[in-house]
């Protein structure tokens, strides 16, 4: 979350999938873990905040993450990322073994 916020503050927009985008007086954002967005409320992963309140809203979400309120969701995302990584490693190994 800190990296995404720092990139936003520095005006960096070179990321493939920016987690924080400001349009006018609104900031649209999501909180990413790996390559997936956390579901913060119901099934919503994208949120909009008034620009002048954005940092306090984002800080409150970060505090909730640090306090463990999203641990179950993060554990599931971490397990999925591990499976994906293992599958990719196995695929690379198979391709390397198939080369003459």
Task: Give a written overview of the molecule.
This protein is 49% helix and 16% strand. The chain is α+β, with helices and mostly antiparallel strands and 100 residues long. It has a domain at 2-70. The strands form 2 sheets. A 3-stranded antiparallel β-sheet has the order 1-2-5. Strands 3-4 form a two-stranded antiparallel sheet. The longest helix has 28 residues, at 71-98. The protein is elongated and about 60 Å long. The chain starts with a helix and ends with a helix.
- Give the tally of β-strands: 5
Structural class: alpha+beta
> How does the overall form come out from the CA principal axes?
elongated
Cα-atom radius of gyration: 17 Å
How far apart are the first and last residues' alpha carbons, in Å? 44 Å
- Secondary-structure element string: HEEEEEHH
Give the neighbour order of strands across the main sheet.
1-2-5
- Estimate the mean pLDDT confidence: 86
Task: Figure out the total of helices.
Answer: 3
> What fraction of the residues are assigned to beta strands by DSSP?
15-25%
**Unreliable residue runs:** none
Major sheet characteristics:
3 strands, antiparallel
The multimeric state of the shown protein is single chain
The level of helicity is 40-55%
């Amino acid at each position: 979350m800190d990296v995404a916020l720092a990139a936003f503050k520095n005006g960096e927009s070179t990321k493939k999938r920016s987690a924080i985008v400001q349009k006018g007086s609104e900031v649209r954002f999501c909180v990413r873990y790996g390559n997936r967005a956390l579901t913060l409320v119901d099934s919503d992963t994208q949120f909009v905040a008034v620009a002048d309140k954005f940092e306090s809203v984002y800080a409150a979400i970060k505090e909730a993450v640090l306090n463990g309120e999203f641990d179950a969701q993060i554990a599931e995302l971490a397990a999925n990322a591990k499976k994906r990584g293992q599958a990719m490693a196995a695929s690379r190994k198979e391709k390397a073994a198939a080369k003459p």
